[in-house]
Write a structure and sequence with these properties.
The protein is an alpha+beta fold and 175 residues long. 39% of the residues lie in helices and 21% in strands. The radius of gyration is 21 Å and the shape is extended.
Length: 175
């Protein structure tokens, strides 16, 4: 419990202007919490962390140690086909970048898109929990408790969000 796990904090602005926070310890899969204030979200995360450890110990699961950036050199070997290598070199030349710069930039963009999608998913999960959403199996309908309105959900199950959705992200170390 006393190990220094990095915490990710996502700050969201609701459509009504209220600020919400979602916190996560990515080294402990599924360990996340939310709150109306940063302090509340961090307090809830500490409670979630305790629960995460308790369940892991009860089930005899290994508890991972925190991963630090010092464990990574920034270099790795990647084997790809000669066809893909050629395509990457041509694209890098077209962009006026070295192959290394081009691949690093492409990887950063891809990872950032995944992080944005994960933040949106966490936010939606937090809202579902907050609103006590009930899902009907046939037809796919979502209704909120105490609400007279009912909304149909896309059959794909994919959430569509406005690209102008405001968010902020920070990574901190808890002491």
């Amino acid at each position: 419990m006393e190990l220094n796990y990095p915490i990710t904090i996502d700050k969201f602005k609701e459509y009504d202007g209220k600020i919400k926070y979602v916190t996560e310890i990515s080294d402990l899969p599924g360990c996340s919490a939310h709150g109306d204030t940063l302090e509340e979200a961090l307090r809830n995360l500490e409670d979630g962390k305790l629960g995460w450890f308790e369940v892991s110990l009860e089930r005899g699961l290994e508890i991972p140690e925190p991963i630090t950036e010092e464990q990574f050199s920034g270099k790795f070997l990647l084997r790809i086909s000669s066809k893909l290598h050629r395509q990457l070199v041509l694209r890098a030349d077209k962009e006026g970048q070295s192959l290394n710069q081009f691949i690093r930039s492409a990887l950063e963009k891809h990872v950032e898109q995944d992080l944005i999608a994960a933040r949106i998913e966490k936010y939606i999960d937090a809202k579902f929990n907050e609103l006590k959403i009930f899902i009907s199996t046939s037809p796919p309908i979502v209704a909120t408790e105490g609400s007279s309105s009912v909304h149909r959900v896309a059959a794909t199950g994919k959430e569509q969000r406005d690209s102008r959705f405001p968010y902020e992200r920070a990574t901190v170390q808890m002491q």
